[in-house]
């Protein structure tokens, strides 16, 4: 995308800054308060409160901000982040605390700050639009919006001033803000048209990406394809997932959904290779610096291939999922190291992340004392000071690092296991048991020293979805390790969610916000992921305890999420509730990344409920949910490992369609490759109306879905024809032709067009420009469906 302003020439380079700069953030708990409080001081979000004394005239997300933008004809400057985000702190200190930058923002923009953890719906929509612009995603996310909230363009971190990095000139915030304002002043129409295109593209993408019904057989072969695709991108030396062509260099995330799916497949007769790779990954993670060897628990991700140097924030959702994963693997392969990881991580959760009510806090910051990792890393002098006895120092550093060249920024060590304890013990002429016994008091001593340091900021908000994950982790660990206190913790947290975060009508809230006085309150309407993960936690708790209450509560919440989030026109679950705030687009969460998507988790929940209750309704709901994302399963299986895991469990009794054995193999991936549009307009009538004849030419053996398609599941893919003038859709009467009925015992009967169907349109132009006919079609044959396309033709 290009804007007509010289100050924006370097936009394509801006996102490279997200991980390449080395600026240090101020400790958010020590934020200066030299400026009067702004509107954010009245919010409960820790992230928003970190900006409450900026000179920027921040608004929280809401109608007040957009009303002002419309009234004053100003663009909206949107900044999205979260409390433990290191680069959010950097940008807050460098730009949002700057008087000069605040003056530009306050004069020319209406500024909105959003906590992505409280409003993931806002974050998701604008992140999708950012990616459709060809930009990468990340946080802080910086977006420029029209007064009605449509995205113009954006990026992630921006430095305050222009600078040169590796020979490239990078545009800074001051230059950027001035350039955008100049463009808005001189050519607002250009920005508004650009925003309309991006908003429309985002909305259409979100519809297309979740309506890829496939008639290909979704069977064991599809599941194996997904496993093979993931195995192909696994690092054979250090485990985890990365870019094979890049030598697996760069950042690595643990990716529990992918590992859990591969472990499920590893237990099959031909899964030994998967078993080796999953265990390699779990071993490397447990030995690396991404794991806290003193306090327990996992940091968010590794900044490099070997898991040695992490990004130090600790997120509840990572620890919850990894506890559950290690417990599942331990139940099949009782490695004592896995048990140790589980118990130490849950000790960390109990000690530092658990509220007295039983709920779990969301995150610990990466920064303290204005530096990332300062709480966790050690200089050689600090280690020697802690262990004045040379023998203790030698033993500790041999086991957990602190010798050789520093591995963190040239002067400090991230503790990690470079060698197995068996090898270290042999070198020290000890048994492994003796080594562990000698290490225990040394680790306790160093943990005591660390406790005297300034602690990272703790975000005490209690998020419903992440608590569901932690309930699941505690319950699985309690079952596998036969530890009653873990089951008690899961019960207490479940009681908290079901009493404090559920309203009288059975609906969940998104967050339990804790004020400075320690009191809390439920806030925000839950998203589909909140229901999905709480149901998962309750089902794990039922499995671990056999207590009927948890199954009944899971069934009740399933009915609630179906009522408020189901797509009545097709299938699957919208991220937002049907009565939630309407943004410019609406999504169905389906991509499994660092955590499962809401739809993948709901599919898994429905399969479990079907097998626990033998209710055909649950089986059908699971079937239709999985089928909704069938195109992605068929073509990008590695993006949906948790969905594949649900499909695998569902296939214990095959229920998905099988295509004809002689179905042709088609390589086309876009409906525009097999469907063409032509249109001809008749002479205007006396009243100005025009009759347009639009003809689709559909290659054999393809067809498109008719309008009406007469099938609820396929409704999002039916053919839609419309007329535009000057980019605006006109009111028109569209008469669709007769269609052909296809009988399908699995999908249900539906209507199609083949050959050259003709659509008649009657329209009265409202302007003077040319008319444009658009037809959105989804082409299929007996084997599969192509991506939807919007065909366009201009009339003379």
TrEMBL record:
Keywords: Signal. The keyword Signal applies. Residues 38-201 form the Spermatogenesis-associated protein 20-like TRX domain. Residues 1-25 form the signal peptide. The keyword Lipid metabolism does not apply. Coiled coil: none annotated. It comes from the Bacteria. GO terms for biological process: carbohydrate metabolic process. InterPro entries: 6-hairpin_glycosidase_sf (IPR008928), 6hp_glycosidase-like_sf (IPR012341), DsbDN (IPR028250), DsbDN_sf (IPR036929), Ssp411 (IPR024705), Ssp411-like_TRX (IPR004879), Thioredoxin-like_sf (IPR036249). This is DUF255 domain-containing protein.
